[in-house]
Write a structure and sequence with these properties.
The complex is a heterodimer of chains A (about 300) and B (about 325). With about 300 residues, chain A is an all-alpha fold. Chain A has a single domain (about 50-295), classed as MetI-like (MetI-like fold, Orthogonal Bundle), CATH 1.10.3720. Helices cover about 75% and strands about 0% of the residues of chain A. In chain A, helix 2 crosses helix 12 and helix 8 packs antiparallel against helix 9 (about 200-215). In chain B, helix 3 packs across helix 4 and helix 3 (about 115-125) packs parallel to helix 6 (about 160-175). In chain B, about 30% of the residues lie in helices and about 20% in strands. Chain B has a domain at about 250-335. Chain B is of the alpha/beta class. The longest helix of chain B is centred in the middle third of the chain and has 18 residues, at about 190-210. Chain B starts with 9 loop residues before the first strand and ends in a 7-residue tail after the last helix. In chain B, the strands form two sheets. Chain B has an eight-stranded mixed beta sheet with strand order 6-7-8-3-9-10-12-11, sandwiched between helices. In chain B, strands 2-1-4-5 form a four-stranded antiparallel beta sheet, with helices on one face. Classes of the chains: A mainly alpha (about 300), B alpha/beta (about 325). The interface of A and B includes residues 4 and 188 of A.
């Protein structure tokens, strides 16, 4: 190798290094911050939910009518009690358990199923793709909320029902997203290179294509989780959610309805919990998408 | 073809290949024929749209969706690629046929370490353990010219220069020990010095491993440097085929001659360059006879009737019916 050409290679290499350094510096500042804050919020909520048994000052379902509607700061009830004298802090902590669990389940299942179906449809093309796209469009055409409410009515209320109902409806978003990404990706040379090396299809899909497209569905899942938490609380508010006496933020707000103007703490604290969960997940989604976009 | 010496080293035989795009009623490749043997580099030269890349992809059984083989035979190492099922094709790819792409950045998975990508290709065929595959990958990295291959194994594509990336692509193509390497304009995205070194690497591989290469390019200079034989394609047909030196020195087809006159050289100033008048035929245009005839200064009415690739001289063939006219004035053209 001649001196001049190895020189030019070093120059190219250093150009790459400089460029990638600049990219690294420029983007993730804000991304890291929102990711960190989001993770702290969600992490804290998950820990609180996990250790609800230890942290709660009282049994969340124990009624204490004489002490009903006690304001925050009352002895033994940091956030007050509700209309049946149940400790609001305890109920919030246990509700986090229910709501976060449902949110995780109702996000993971559609994510996995949707991405799998979308990936196969996008890679295979042809009739498989047309059938999947058709089904996706049909599900998309329904108003999601109405469809979900109908499903909860049919299957009966309960945590598994909510997860199944959400999965049945929201896998289509992931399927469509994954399908479009895979279709773009499959014509790239590296996929062709993998095919021409004789790799089996499942390996091409799993090791090569999925790795390159997974960022977007995961980011979408994070923002979807926000919507799902809001949706669970909406269901609870409509009386279709988690059956009583198990606590859930939406049901708590719904139960507080007669007291909105007189006893604010019944609705405000679960409302704040929902806001915090939504904010935390949004921040994670935002941070992830910025980080991945930078790469 | 009169090449008895290569009969036993025969690796690839393409006969009258016709490729058709989707619903269109005409073929984009219209009867291409090609041979390649071990230890030999065969070039396919032609301009964009001449069908050279599609021909190459057909050999690997990797035609894009919508393009189908409308006729002809492709035989790679005695396997009929046109009739082969998916399983046969999968075994053929990697183990018999490797492919090198034009743009090394997109030919590599950006999220995987380069060593893993090579090891994976090695694992797809040989009965290797993971550690053996890794050792093989490191050995291949060294083979394609990486100093410190063990350290480079862990790098990502974006950490490499274009030339180094192309070397990785070549290593991946070699991982399954193929006997035929298909190169689709492998140097087009590289600068001149890097191009020369990649060509040297490919030449070394042919010599050391005894593989055969089919090398698609639009650059006659590159083709002249690496190819033993060249097939010139125009509008989906092979118009001339022969040993590189002969073909470039004494072209027997007016299109080859026109291409050579359009190549800038050191002792030819800009006025000496001759553009080819007219345009290549549009897709779907009816082409009775020689597709080049409308642009050809030697054309006569008879050129508009059926043509075929016929042997001329020793070891060469051309589709030009007036090749003897070119031969007569051959003394006049030297580079």
């Amino acid at each position: 190798m001649s001196v001049s050409s190895s020189l030019s290679r070093t120059r190219v290499a250093s150009w790459y290094e400089r460029r990638s350094k600049r990219l690294r510096r420029r983007s993730p500042r804000g991304a890291d911050a929102s990711l960190a804050i989001g993770l702290v919020i969600i992490g804290a909520m998950m820990l609180a939910a996990l250790f609800a048994g230890v942290l709660s000052p009282a049994d969340p379902t124990r009624q204490d009518i004489p002490n009903a509607l006690a304001p925050p700061g009352t002895d033994g009830h940091l956030l007050g009690t509700d209309a049946l004298g149940r400790d609001i802090l305890s109920r919030l902590l246990y509700a986090a358990r229910t709501d976060l669990f449902v949110a995780v389940g109702a996000v993971l299942l559609p994510l996995v199923i949707g991405v799998a179906i979308g990936t196969i449809a996008g890679y295979r093309g042809g009739i498989v793709d047309r059938v999947v796209t058709g089904v996706v469009n049909v599900v998309f055409a329904f108003p999601v909320l109405v469809l979900l409410i109908a499903l909860v009515f049919i299957l009966g209320p309960g945590i598994p029902t909510i997860i199944v109902a959400v999965t049945l409806v929201s896998w289509v978003s992931y399927a469509r997203l994954a399908r479009d990404l895979v279709r773009r990706e499959r014509s790239l040379d590296y996929v062709l290179a993998a095919r021409v090396s004789g790799l089996p299809t499942w390996r091409i899909l799993g090791r090569h294509i999925l790795r390159n497209i997974i960022a977007q569905p995961v980011t979408f899942a994070m923002s979807d989780a926000v919507a799902i938490i809001l949706f669970i609380t909406a269901l609870g508010f409509l009386g279709l959610g988690v059956p009583p006496p198990a606590p859930d933020w939406g049901t708590m707000i719904a139960d507080a309805q007669p007291y909105f103007t007189t006893h604010w703490w019944l609705a405000v604290f679960p409302g704040l919990a929902i806001c915090a969960a939504g904010l935390g997940l949004s921040l994670i989604a935002d941070g992830l998408s910025q980080k991945w976009n930078a790469q | 073809m009169s090449r008895p010496d290569v009969a036993d080293r025969r690796l690839l035989s393409v006969r009258d290949l016709r490729l058709r795009v989707g619903g269109e009623a005409h073929d984009v490749v219209r009867g291409a024929s090609l041979d390649a043997a071990r230890g030999e580099v065969v070039g396919i030269a032609g301009e964009s749209g001449s069908g050279k890349s599609l021909t190459l992809r057909a050999i690997a059984g990797l035609l894009p969706t919508g393009v189908t083989v409308a006729g002809g035979d492709i035989e790679v190492d005695r396997v009929d690629v046109v009739k082969a099922g998916p399983q046969t094709l999968r075994k053929l790819r990697g183990a018999t046929v490797g492919m090198v792409f034009q743009e090394p950045m997109t030919a590599l998975n950006p999220t995987m370490r380069i060593g893993r990508q090579i090891a994976e290709a090695a694992l797809a065929h040989g009965d290797l353990s993971r550690s053996q595959a890794k050792a093989r990958a490191i050995e291949l990295l060294e083979r394609v010219g990486f100093p410190e291959p063990a350290r480079r194994y862990r790098q990502f594509p974006h950490q490499l220069s274009g030339g180094m990336r192309q070397r990785v692509v070549i290593a991946i193509a070699l991982a399954g020990n193929p006997s035929l390497l298909l190169c689709d304009e492998p140097t087009t995205a590289l600068d001149a010095t890097v191009t020369l070194r990649i060509l040297d690497l490919l030449t070394d591989l042919v010599r050391d491993l005894g593989i055969g290469i089919v090398f698609v390019t639009h650059d006659l200079g590159v083709a002249a440097r690496i190819c033993d034989r060249i097939a010139v394609m125009y509008a989906g047909q092979v118009v001339e085929e022969g040993p590189t030196a002969e073909l470039l020195r004494r072209p027997r087809h007016p299109y080859t001659l026109a291409l050579l006159r359009a190549v800038p050289t050191r002792d030819r100033d800009i006025d000496g360059l001759r553009a080819i008048p007219g345009n290549p035929p549009q897709r779907g245009e009816e082409l009775p006879g020689c597709a080049f005839a409308p642009r050809c200064e030697y054309a006569e009415p008879a050129c508009r009737s059926e043509i075929e690739l016929v042997p001329v001289d020793d070891d060469r063939s051309t589709s030009c019916r007036r090749h003897s006219v070119l031969a007569a004035m051959a003394g006049g053209h030297h580079d």
